[in-house]
Amino acid sequence: MTTVSSPVSGRAIALDDVPDPVFAGAMVGPGVAVDPPRARTVAVAPVDGVLVSVHPHAFVVVDNEGHGVLVHLGIDTVQLNGEGFALLAAKGDMVTRGQPVVRWDPAAVEESGKSPVCPVIALEATVDVLSRLATGSEVAAGDTLFDWK
């Protein structure tokens, strides 16, 4: 079993409440989202593993069980072309849970007209393999969002 931690602090919300039909419909995969405070912060690795994809607005970590976890920093933030984001790790890096990956500013994302809500997605999974989905509560970066059986 893999425990997936929150990459940012904030309020854990159901994917249904994400303002994007692809994430809200779990088309990318099941998971939880976090609505972060509007202050400059750092997104951290949700699991131990290797960074297989790293962009200013999103990254994927694959753990030693082959579970891929997508962290998407905001909605439609790819359109910001990296502005307001700073990479702290690179593709191929081994990371540990809680290790900083991207520095970003949710307030600046919101000021640009984008949502700073952060989906945390279990890639290539089905909702029935997830348990303990944290929603409706405040979480700190590193707190458990869900378990992946």
From TrEMBL:
SUPFAM superfamilies: Duplicated hybrid motif (SSF51261)
Keywords recorded for this protein, A-Z: Kinase, Phosphotransferase system, Sugar transport, Transferase, Transport
Alphabetized PANTHER family for the sequence: PTS SYSTEM GLUCOSE-SPECIFIC EIIA COMPONENT (PTHR45008)
Keyword Kinase: yes
Annotated ranges, domain PTS EIIA type-1: 20-124
Organism: Actinacidiphila guanduensis
Entry keyword annotation includes Transferase: yes
One GO process term, biological-process aspect: phosphoenolpyruvate-dependent sugar phosphotransferase system
Localization (cell): Cytoplasm
Protein name per the record: PTS system N-acetylglucosamine-specific IIA component, Glc family
Molecular function terms from GO: kinase activity
GO cellular component, one term: cytoplasm
